[in-house]
Amino acid sequence: MSHDEDHIASTREKLVRMANQIATFFHSKPREEGITGVAEHINKFWEPRMRRQFFELLDGDPEDFDELVIAASARIKRPLTPEQADKSLGYAKPAAAGGTVPHE
C-alpha cells in the first residue's frame, strides 16, 4: 500500500471510529434520543467534507458502523457533491488559466 493509500485508509478508520465513539456515548440514552443525539452531534461538529466521506463509507460498506450511527444517518445532512462541501467552507476552485501568465 502506498503512503497515500495508507493515509486514505487511516482517515476512513478515524471517521468510523469517531462516529462509533459518538454512538457509544448516546447508547446510554433512550434509543430515539440517542439517534437524535448522534445526528445532531455530527451535523454540528463535522464539516461538510467529513460528512461526505462519512456517507461514502456508509453507502459502500456500513458493517463497521455502530447500528445507532446507521439509524442516525437518515437525519445527518448529506452534502451533494465534493464541490458543495468545499464551497460551504469558503474554498473555490481557481479559475482556469486563459492563456499564458505574464512574467514579471
How far do the termini sit from each other?
43 Å
Globular, elongated, flat, extended or rod-shaped: what is the shape?
Answer: globular
Spell out the helices and strands N to C.
HHHHH
Number of helices: 5
Report the helical percentage: 55-70%
What is the strand content?
Answer: under 5%
Which runs of at least 5 residues are low in confidence (pLDDT < 50)? 97-104
Total number of domains = 1
Mean pLDDT: 83
Structural class: mainly alpha
The rounded Rg comes to 18 Å
Main sheet makeup: none
Can I get a quick summary?
With 104 residues, the protein is mainly α.
Q: What labels describe this entry?
A:
globular, oxidoreductase, 104 residues, mainly alpha, 62% helix, disordered C terminus, Formate dehydrogenase subunit delta, EC 1.17.1.9, 0% strand, Formate_DH_dsu
Protein architecture, described:
The chain has 104 residues and is an all-alpha fold. It has helices spanning 3-26, 31-45, 48-60, 67-72, 82-88. The protein starts with a helix and ends in a 16-residue tail after the last helix. The chain has one domain (3-84).
